[in-house]
Structure formats: C-alpha cells, structure tokens
C-alpha cells in the first residue's frame, strides 16, 4: 500500500515541473507584469539610452523627379538594452528569446524626419525580441517616401544626392543616443547596409555611395546619404537617338531643289513640330523648376533654334532661287560669286556682257542654242514662207559674223520686200535672244540659290554637330565625384 502515495507524489512532481508550467508565459509575466512602457529604460534621469541602428536597404523603389520623392524599402534594425527586461535563461527553463508585441515594451520612437507622405513610422509593427540580459532587438520593415532635391541640370546624365534622416522624435540627445551597429568582423557599419542577396536592383538608378553620419545637436540624428547615378540607356534609346535622328533630317532641306518650293520649308517645320513633341515628353518628366534647365531640354532648345534658323534660311534661299528678270535685276557683282558651268564670258548671251564688241564671233555657242536656232528657223519659215535653202542662208548670218550682216544689209537695200523680210527676221532673232537671256537669268538665280544652300548646308552641319557634341560632352563629364567613402554595394 506504500506504492499509491508514491505514485501520486511522482505524478504531482511531473505536473509541477514540466506539464503545468509554460516557461515562456511565466517569463512573460515575470518581465511585463509590472512593466511601464512609457518610462525610459534607465535607472537615473541623467542616464542615456544607447540605441544601435542598422538600416538595411532592400529596394530602391523609385525616384520621382517630378515630385522630388525617393521611395525606398528598408529594414530598420534597432537594438538597445532595457534593464527591466533582464532575465537569465537558467531561471526559465532555458528560454533564450521572448517575442512580444512591440506595443508592450518601451520603444525609442525613431522616425524618418524627411518623409513626405506623413508616414513617419514603420510599415509593419513586428514583434520585439527580448534576449537574456535585457537586450532588446527590433527589426521592423518600412517603406519610406522621403524628400530629395532633384538636380536636373544634367538630366538624363545626372546623379542625385538624397538623404534619409532618422531621429528619435520624443527623446533628445541627452536621453537617447545613436551608435552604428558592428558587424561580425568587428567593423562599424557606418553606411546603409545592402545585402546583395536580398537587394533588388533598380533599373534606372545605381547606388554609388551610401555613407551614414551621426549628428549630435539637440536631437541625435542619423543621416544616411544616398548618392545615386542614373543609368541613361533608357533615355539614350528612347529620346536622344530619335531626337538626334529627327533633328538631323532638317539638314536634308538643303538638298531639295528650288523647284520644290514650299517643300523645303515643310521639311524643316515638320522637324520643328517633332522636336516640340520631345520637349513636351521631357517637360512631363522633370520637376517644374526654373532653377536650372536640363541638358536634354537645352539640347532640344538648341536643335529647335537650328531648325528655326534653317526654316528662315530656306525662305531666304527660296526668295533668291525663284527670282525672275521681270522682278529683280542681277548685279554683275552677284554674278561673279555664282559658280557658273560656262568656261568664259565669250559664251554668255550678249545682254550679259556689255563690254564685249557686238561683232565678236559666236562660234562657241552653248548647246542649248542649237535648239533655239531650230526654233528661229521654223519661225522664219512660218513668217516668210521661204524655201528652206534660202533660210539656211539667212541663218548663216548669225554664224558668219559681220560680212554676212553686211551682205544682208545690201540685200535689204536692193529690194524693199527683202528688206522687210530681213527686218522681220531680225525682230524674231532679237526677241528669241531676249527670251534666252531671261531664261539664262532665271537659271542663274536658281544657281545662286543653290550656292547659298551649299554654304548654309555646311554651316548648319558644323553648327549642328559641334553643338550636339558640346552639349552631350557636358553630360558625359558629369560623373559622380570620387568621394572618400567605400562603395555602397560591395563586390
Ligand atoms: C541582469 O541580471 C544579472 C543577474 O541578476 C546581473 O548580473 C546583470 O548585471 C543584469 N544586467 C543588467 C543590464 O541589469
Ligand atoms: C549630399 O547632401 C548632403 C546634405 O544635403 C551634403 O552634406 C553632402 O555634402 C552632399 N554630398 C555631395 C557629394 O554633394
């Protein structure tokens, strides 16, 4: 009968030691039953709580240039010691860590000072971990939208300097101080921590430097600076290359013949309109600031000025090209500058070379003259109804110079009919010569326009290429300065 009380004792002992007691629950009650989360975890009012901070960037979500907002996804690792949460694992059955909701313990109330959307705190109130010895660790995730003054001068070859400023909103520098966390090798992590495994790279921005600095004023601030550099390929492919190609088209206007008339202007004005579309695209992207003009905007203004100049130039050249002798007179000086396909003055029509003696032989007539002689012959045939053979003789007058003319004159003196006929022929020849001179002058104006076009084409080509190169070189040389910080993302 002695077995029954022994068994009961054993059972009670089992229940008492293991089954009936939840170590975590009793630790929870032990730590938090008389805990006041409002008071600082210090024994005296002069003591300072030391907060160890480590910010881990998991994703640089975006930089909105228009709203000057940087959106980041971070984990904020905060560690401190709370003497009231001190326990020894031996007293609680080997429990090493206690996880409690964050609203049950004292928190340092760290906020992002330069946020822009009123979301000062974290995105998710994760549990707080309490370790043996009163060490408290909290690692909440946060998505922050912070202000970032965007410098657009070199857009899209720019780099930006954005910062994340953390501070304890409630406690001043005497009450709460910050220190950077220390990694496994004993090195201080005085920059934004980026775990290359967990980090999602941004397609538009590369992070060059991300140093952190602790500033002790009235409040203790932790300022992380993000030096981010834009990867310009997107803009090169989508804006710069099409823009340069379309702007280059404007030079083709110079190759259109003067006969195309308004088409010359149409080409350049179309290009001007296309450039306006690009300007509109860029204006949508960048902040509405008058502090500086982005590089791309400057380039577009430049090519628009070039296109406008070319439109004006085309109008002026058209004005020159399409002149006629009835509206304008060519001054001999202008004719000198016109490149002429004729080898010498002797081939020019009589009206253009007043110094030339009229009896000079016209042996080297330009080829076009042959057709006019044919026309002249036919006109003579119609007027005079003469046999062809005699007309050939008349036509010879032009070719054989003075003695033929003298012969004609003597013939005219001989008979009034012949004289009348010779007068008629002279009249027809004269008016044909006038027509030819006029046509020659018209084509001379065209040639002069062409020469202007040639000069202006080269001028515009040089202006366009030099201007483009200078503007884009400015972007090329706008590199992130070599700052004395370690690279943000380790190799
Ligand atoms: C925690 O408790 C142990 C033992 O009771 C003590 O030695 C230690 O100093 C305490 N730690 C703190 C931070 O109060
Ligand atoms: C970035 O901005 C911070 C604060 O605005 C400034 O202290 C720092 O010198 C800047 N860094 C660079 C490289 O301009």
From TrEMBL:
<dbReference type="GO" id="GO:0022848">
    <property type="term" value="F:acetylcholine-gated monoatomic cation-selective channel activity"/>
</dbReference>
<feature type="transmembrane region" description="Helical">
    <location>
        <begin position="455"/>
        <end position="477"/>
    </location>
</feature>
<dbReference type="InterPro" id="IPR006202">
    <property type="entry name" value="Neur_chan_lig-bd"/>
</dbReference>
<keyword id="KW-1003">Cell membrane</keyword>
<keyword id="KW-0325">Glycoprotein</keyword>
<keyword id="KW-0628">Postsynaptic cell membrane</keyword>
<feature type="transmembrane region" description="Helical">
    <location>
        <begin position="267"/>
        <end position="287"/>
    </location>
</feature>
<keyword id="KW-0406">Ion transport</keyword>
<keyword id="KW-0407">Ion channel</keyword>
<comment type="subunit">
    <text>Pentamer of two alpha chains, and one each of the beta, delta, and gamma (in immature muscle) or epsilon (in mature muscle) chains. The muscle heteropentamer composed of alpha-1, beta-1, delta, epsilon subunits interacts with the alpha-conotoxin ImII.</text>
</comment>
<feature type="signal peptide">
    <location>
        <begin position="1"/>
        <end position="20"/>
    </location>
</feature>
<keyword id="KW-1015">Disulfide bond</keyword>
<dbReference type="GO" id="GO:0031594">
    <property type="term" value="C:neuromuscular junction"/>
</dbReference>
<keyword id="KW-1133">Transmembrane helix</keyword>
<dbReference type="InterPro" id="IPR036734">
    <property type="entry name" value="Neur_chan_lig-bd_sf"/>
</dbReference>
<dbReference type="Pfam" id="PF02932">
    <property type="entry name" value="Neur_chan_memb"/>
</dbReference>
<keyword id="KW-0813">Transport</keyword>
<dbReference type="InterPro" id="IPR006029">
    <property type="entry name" value="Neurotrans-gated_channel_TM"/>
</dbReference>
<protein>
    <recommendedName>
        <fullName>Acetylcholine receptor subunit epsilon</fullName>
    </recommendedName>
</protein>
<dbReference type="InterPro" id="IPR038050">
    <property type="entry name" value="Neuro_actylchol_rec"/>
</dbReference>
<dbReference type="GO" id="GO:0004888">
    <property type="term" value="F:transmembrane signaling receptor activity"/>
</dbReference>
<feature type="transmembrane region" description="Helical">
    <location>
        <begin position="233"/>
        <end position="255"/>
    </location>
</feature>
<feature type="transmembrane region" description="Helical">
    <location>
        <begin position="299"/>
        <end position="322"/>
    </location>
</feature>
<dbReference type="InterPro" id="IPR002394">
    <property type="entry name" value="Nicotinic_acetylcholine_rcpt"/>
</dbReference>
<keyword id="KW-0472">Membrane</keyword>
<dbReference type="InterPro" id="IPR006201">
    <property type="entry name" value="Neur_channel"/>
</dbReference>
<feature type="domain" description="Neurotransmitter-gated ion-channel ligand-binding">
    <location>
        <begin position="26"/>
        <end position="232"/>
    </location>
</feature>
<keyword id="KW-1071">Ligand-gated ion channel</keyword>
<keyword id="KW-0770">Synapse</keyword>
<dbReference type="Pfam" id="PF02931">
    <property type="entry name" value="Neur_chan_LBD"/>
</dbReference>
<feature type="domain" description="Neurotransmitter-gated ion-channel transmembrane">
    <location>
        <begin position="239"/>
        <end position="472"/>
    </location>
</feature>
<dbReference type="InterPro" id="IPR036719">
    <property type="entry name" value="Neuro-gated_channel_TM_sf"/>
</dbReference>
<keyword id="KW-0812">Transmembrane</keyword>
<dbReference type="InterPro" id="IPR018000">
    <property type="entry name" value="Neurotransmitter_ion_chnl_CS"/>
</dbReference>
<dbReference type="GO" id="GO:0045211">
    <property type="term" value="C:postsynaptic membrane"/>
</dbReference>
<keyword id="KW-0732">Signal</keyword>
<comment type="similarity">
    <text>Belongs to the ligand-gated ion channel (TC 1.A.9) family. Acetylcholine receptor (TC 1.A.9.1) subfamily. Epsilon/CHRNE sub-subfamily.</text>
</comment>
<keyword id="KW-0675">Receptor</keyword>
<comment type="function">
    <text>After binding acetylcholine, the AChR responds by an extensive change in conformation that affects all subunits and leads to opening of an ion-conducting channel across the plasma membrane.</text>
</comment>
């Amino acid at each position: 009968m002695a077995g029954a009380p022994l068994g009961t004792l054993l059972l009670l002992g089992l229940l008492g030691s293991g089954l009936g007691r939840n170590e975590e629950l009793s630790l929870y009650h032990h730590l938090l039953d008389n805990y006041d989360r409002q008071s600082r975890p210090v024994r005296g009012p002069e003591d300072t709580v030391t907060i160890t901070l480590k910010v881990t960037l998991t994703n640089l979500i975006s930089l909105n240039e228009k709203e000057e907002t940087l959106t980041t996804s971070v984990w904020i690792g905060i560690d401190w010691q709370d003497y009231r949460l001190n326990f020894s694992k031996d007293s609680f059955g080997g429990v090493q860590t206690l996880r409690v909701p964050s609203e049950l313990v004292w928190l340092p109330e760290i906020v992002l000072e330069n946020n822009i959307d009123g979301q000062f705190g974290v995105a998710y109130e994760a549990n707080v971990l309490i370790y043996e010895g009163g060490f408290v660790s909290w690692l909440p995730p946060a998505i922050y939208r912070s202000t970032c003054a965007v410098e657009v001068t070199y857009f899209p070859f720019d780099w930006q300097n954005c910062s994340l400023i953390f501070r304890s909103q409630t406690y001043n520098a005497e009450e709460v101080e910050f220190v950077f966390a220390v990694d496994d090798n004993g090195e201080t992590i005085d920059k934004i921590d980026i775990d290359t495994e967990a980090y999602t790279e941004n397609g538009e921005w590369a992070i060059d430097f991300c140093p952190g600095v602790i500033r002790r004023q009235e409040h203790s601030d932790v300022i992380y600076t993000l030096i981010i550099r834009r990867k310009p390929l997107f803009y090169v492919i989508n804006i710069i290359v099409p823009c340069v190609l379309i702007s280059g088209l404007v030079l083709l206007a110079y190759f259109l013949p003067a006969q195309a008339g308004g088409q010359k202007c149409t080409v350049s004005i179309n290009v001007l309109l296309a450039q306006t579309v690009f300007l509109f695209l860029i204006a949508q992207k960048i902040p509405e600031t008058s502090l500086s003009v982005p590089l791309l905007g400057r380039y577009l203004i430049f090519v628009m000025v070039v296109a406008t100049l070319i439109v004006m130039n085309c109008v002026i050249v058209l004005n020159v090209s399409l002149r006629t002798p009835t509206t304008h007179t060519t001054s001999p000086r202008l004719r000198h500058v016109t490149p002429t396909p004729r080898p010498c003055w002797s081939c020019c029509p009589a009206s253009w070379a007043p110094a030339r003696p009229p009896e000079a032989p016209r042996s080297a007539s330009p080829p076009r003259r042959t057709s006019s002689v044919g026309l002249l012959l036919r006109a003579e045939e119609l007027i005079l109804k003469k046999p062809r053979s005699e007309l050939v003789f008349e036509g010879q007058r032009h070719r054989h110079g003075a003695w033929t003319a003298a012969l004609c004159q003597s013939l005219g003196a001989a008979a009034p009919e012949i004289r009348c006929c010779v007068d008629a022929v002279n009249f027809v020849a004269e008016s044909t010569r006038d027509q030819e001179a006029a046509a020659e002058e018209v084509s001379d104006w065209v040639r002069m326009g062409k020469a202007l076009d040639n000069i202006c084409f080269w001028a515009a080509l040089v202006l366009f290429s030099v201007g483009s190169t200078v503007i884009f070189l400015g972007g090329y040389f706008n590199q992130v300065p070599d700052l004395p910080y370690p690279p943000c993302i380790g190799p």
